[in-house]
Structures are given as C-alpha cells and as structure tokens.
C-alpha cells in the first residue's frame, strides 16, 4: 500500500528527516564545534572552576529533592485511583495532566500570586496572624512548583501501571496472613519498582531542565545549569563557556534518558494481569485514603485560584484594570506594544506550529508504521531526541548555527515557529504513530481485496480512524507552542514577543500595573490551555466509546 504524497513512496520520509538534520542535529553539532574548536584552556578552566560545580551540584540537589517530594504524594494518589471507585474519579483523572501541560510562565505567575511577596497567603498570614512568610525566590518555592507540575504526571503513570500489575497477588498474600505492612514492602513496592524507577528518572529530568521555573522564581539567589547557560550566552556573550555547559548538560540528560529507556522497556515487557475491579470505600481507612487525595487536589487548585483572584482583586478592591491594561501601552512601559498583541503573536505561532508538526509528524508516523527494516528503530529514536534535549540548549544552538548564510534565520519571523515545531514534533509523531499502529492489518487486507486504491484506503479507512488522534496531536502541538519559553527567550525578536516572554518581562518590573497585567495575561493563557486540554480529554473519551 502506498501513501498519496508528492515525493513518491520511498522518499517521503526524507522531508521530516531533512528538517530534523538542519534544525536539530546541525545546531547541536555547532555547539560541539564551538566547544572544541576554540583555542585556549576554556574547558579545563571551566571544569576546575568551583562556580561550575556549585551550579551543577545545586541543579542535582534540586532535581533529586524534587523526585522525593513528588513521588510520596504521587504514590498515595495512584494507590487510591487504582483501587477505589468514588464520586469524581473520572473527572479528576481527566484533569490529572492539566498542571503538567500548563505553560511554565502561568505556573510561576500562579505561585507568585499565592506565595510571592504580594501573594494571597503571604499577605493573609502577615495581617491576620502576624507571621512573616518569605518564600519569594526561595528553594522551598522551587520544590513546591516542581511538585505541582510533576505530581500529576507521576500519579497518572503509576495509576495505570498499578491497575494492571499491583493488586493481582494481594488476595493470595492475604490468604497467607500478610499484614498491611507486609503488603506494602513485600508485594506492592517490589511490583511497582520498575515503574517507580522510570517515573523517578522522568521527574528528575523535568526538574533538572526546569529553566523557566528557576529563572522566573529563583531570581539571582538560585542558579541551575540551564540558567547559567543563558547567563553566559545572553548576559555575558561568553559563547564558549555556554557551549561547554550545554555539552555537559547533553551528557547528563543523555545518560538519564538512556536509563529511562532501559527501565521503560523492562516494565513494558513485564507480566500483565487483568485489571482488578475498583471497589467502593467502606471502611474508615478507605475514607482516610480518599480524604488525603482530595486534600492533595485542593492544594493543586490553590495556585490557580490565587492567580484568578489576583488578576481581579487589585489594591484592596475588585477591578478589571489588569485586563483593560492589556489593550493599551502605558507610559514608561518596558513593552513596545500592548500586551494583547503578544497573544496574537502566540496564536499565530501556535497555528503555524500545529500545521508544521502535523505535516512532518504525520508523514514520519506513516512511514514508520509501514517500515519493516532496521532503519525504523533508528528513525524512531532520532525523532524522539528533541524530547530529551533542553529547550535552552536548542535555543542556544539556534543562535550559534542559524545566524549566517546559507541559513541566516536569526532575524527571521520563521525562527520561532521552526523551534516550536521541533519541540512539538516528537509528541505529535508518537501520538499519530501509536494510533496508526492500532489499526488492525485485517482492515488493510479487506480494503485491498475490495480493490480500493491507496488514496481511497487513506480517506475512507485510515483517516476516519485517525481523526481523533490527529485532533489530539494538533491540540498538543498548539498548547506546546503557546507555553514554550526556553528556546523562545533566546531567539525571539523584540517585535514578535510571545505571551510567556511578556509575562516574564512584566513580572521583572516594579509597579502594581505591571503585576496586574502579568496576572491577567496569565489567566488568559491558562484558559486557552485548559479548554484545549479538556477538548483533548473529551475526544479521547469519545474514541473509547
């Protein structure tokens, strides 16, 4: 069966591969070239500098503590969702990944509204109880933010795995008199270990590369490896040290994702059991478990409620001034155009990203679906590489590699949608590839026996079955583009600022008007992301029916 494309059956995959080679592999090799080609003892000086290892050590400590702080509540929540049937279970599961897909600028602004210097809890504690709570730019605040967007992902992965594997042996253990303590340490945790280890590496990677979180909330007190790359490249124009630090980060993240891939193959190849039926909560212990999970979810909602509250409650009274200020450029503003223009730029970039990611990801998913050679595995791995690469490293590679002929895109409008497409491409391709591989081969055989042409097969068989996956992949690409921050901060022009960049600039300036506009703009971005994610979940539920 052939796919109806312009370049012929054998060479369609060259288009997305060429895009990846030019826009991803070439910038990475340029970083390596800058690192090793410049004369002098830059590498030795950097590796023997105490500041370098302090930054690396702080980044490792932040990521490691984030793993521990995230897994404890995620383990409790996954146990409850995998075991009990209760009111609101499906609703909470549908919303489970919303904090994870929220733009980091929105998350940072929400925690600023909750625990910042003018945050709701900070002000209430000071006026009501006389307690001075100073969490602004603190290490504790960074950990809380990491829990906020990593906990839902960890909880969801553990829940799905636990339902299939976690409870099958418990009836036998109970027959032999196993206590609750023995069940946890001898049955549940050993069975969960492969997934726990892989989730730990995933949370570690996301915390290690949390550039936006640390830059927006850490100030000058906390500097991670990614923030130091940005400071060296943009602040000091020290490209060589930035290149060396980028190489160091690539090595560390490559090691982490290699370990994650090994563990993922281990638990994917493990024994699968039939999911145990959910049971209602009847005992006091059951209700305590449920109560703990509801408290966790209420804590997750607090920053979002604080964000909306802070956008409307200004100077001790209710006001729409923050939203009205989005449509005007105030005097002495740090911006060059009204903030709402950034929303228009972001929507335009997101639309171009969606079109590009769906086109390239769709072609590659189709080709990988029908490939039977050893090249299929290599191409699949190649297209997943951007997911394991920091967006800061990607943006730094862009300004090094794409700023001179024949690829002089440094001042081009297309630089941002290209970068966003590259970030969204692995997720789009994986979503479409999974859906394509789920189509039974028997349907293709029936289509062939009926004499359908390749074009009719695609239009009447494949496309209807893939429609939900295509919309889901498109919405994911759209949301990723709206919230992308790291690469955009490197490459965005002053006349094409996106919403996350405007929020960053407004939060960095004093004044109540700037603060109100940052909150209001964050609420608009939050609503866009939430509606998009709810649409994805609705389509997924429709497909399951």
How large a portion of the residues is in β-strands, by DSSP E? under 5%
**H/E series, N to C?**
HHHEHHHHHHHHHHEHEEHHHHHHHHHH
User: How many beta-strand segments?
Assistant: 4
Overall radius of gyration = 25 Å
How many domains, in number, for the residues? Answer: 2
CATH superfamily of the largest domain: MetI-like
Q: How would a crystallographer describe the biggest sheet?
A: 2 strands, parallel
Supply the CATH architecture of the largest domain.
Orthogonal Bundle
Distinct helical segment count: 24
What is the strand arrangement across the widest sheet?
1-2
Structural descriptors:
545 residues; mainly alpha; MetI-like fold; two-stranded parallel sheet; 4 strands; 1% strand
């Amino acid at each position: 069966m052939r796919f109806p494309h312009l370049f012929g059956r054998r060479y369609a995959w060259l288009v997305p591969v060429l895009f990846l080679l030019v826009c991803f592999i070439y910038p990475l090799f340029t970083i390596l070239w800058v690192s090793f080609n410049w004369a002098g003892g830059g590498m030795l000086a950097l590796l023997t500098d105490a500041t370098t290892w302090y930054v690396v050590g702080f980044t490792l400590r932040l990521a490691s503590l984030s793993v521990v702080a995230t897994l404890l509540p995620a383990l409790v929540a996954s146990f409850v969702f995998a075991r009990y049937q209760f009111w609101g279970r499906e609703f909470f599961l549908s919303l489970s990944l919303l904090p994870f897909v929220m733009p980091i600028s929105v998350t940072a602004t929400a925690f600023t509204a909750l625990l910042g210097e003018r945050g709701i809890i900070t002000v209430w504690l000071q006026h009501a109880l006389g307690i001075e709570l100073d969490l602004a730019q603190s290490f504790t605040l960074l950990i809380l933010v990491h829990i906020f967007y990593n906990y839902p992902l960890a909880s969801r992965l553990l829940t799905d795995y636990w339902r299939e594997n976690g409870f099958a042996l418990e009836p036998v253990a109970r027959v032999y008199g196993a206590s609750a303590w023995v069940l946890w340490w001898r049955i549940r945790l050993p069975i969960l270990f492969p997934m726990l280890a892989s989730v730990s590496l995933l949370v570690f990677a996301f915390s290690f590369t949390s550039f936006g979180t640390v830059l927006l909330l850490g100030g000058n007190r906390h500097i991670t490896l990614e923030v130091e790359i940005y400071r060296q490249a943009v602040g000091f124009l020290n490209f060589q040290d930035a290149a060396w630090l980028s190489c160091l980060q690539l090595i560390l993240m490559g090691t982490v994702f290699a370990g994650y891939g090994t563990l993922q193959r281990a638990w994917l190849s493990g024994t699968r059991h039939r999911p145990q039926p959910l049971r209602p909560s009847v005992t006091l212990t059951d209700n305590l478990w449920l109560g703990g999970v509801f408290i966790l979810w209420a804590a997750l909602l607090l920053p979002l409620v604080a964000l909306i509250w802070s956008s409307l409650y200004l100077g001790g009274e209710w006001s729409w001034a923050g939203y009205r200020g989005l449509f005007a450029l105030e005097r002495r503003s740090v911006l060059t155009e009204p903030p709402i223009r950034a929303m228009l730029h972001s929507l335009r970039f997101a639309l171009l990203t969606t079109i590009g990611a769906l086109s390239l990801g769709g072609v590659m998913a189709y080709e990988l679906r029908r490939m039977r050679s050893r090249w299929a595995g290599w191409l699949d791995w190649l297209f997943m590489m951007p997911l394991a690469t920091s967006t800061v490293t990607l943006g730094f590679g862009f300004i090094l590699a794409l700023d001179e002929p024949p690829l002089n895109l440094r001042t081009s409008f297309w630089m941002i949608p290209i970068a966003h497409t590259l970030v969204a491409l692995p997720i789009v391709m994986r979503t479409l590839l999974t859906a394509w591989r789920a189509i039974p081969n028997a349907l293709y055989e029936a289509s062939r026996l009926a004499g359908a042409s390749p074009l009719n097969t695609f239009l009447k068989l494949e496309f209807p079955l893939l429609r939900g996956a295509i919309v889901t992949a498109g919405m994911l690409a759209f949301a990723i583009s709206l919230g992308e921050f790291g690469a955009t901060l490197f490459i965005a022009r002053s006349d094409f600022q996106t919403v996350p960049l405007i929020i960053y600039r407004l939060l960095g300036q004093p004044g109540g008007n700037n603060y109100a506009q940052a909150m209001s703009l964050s609420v608009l971005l939050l609503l866009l992301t939430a509606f998009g994610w709810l649409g994805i979940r609705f389509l997924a539920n429709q497909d399951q029916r």
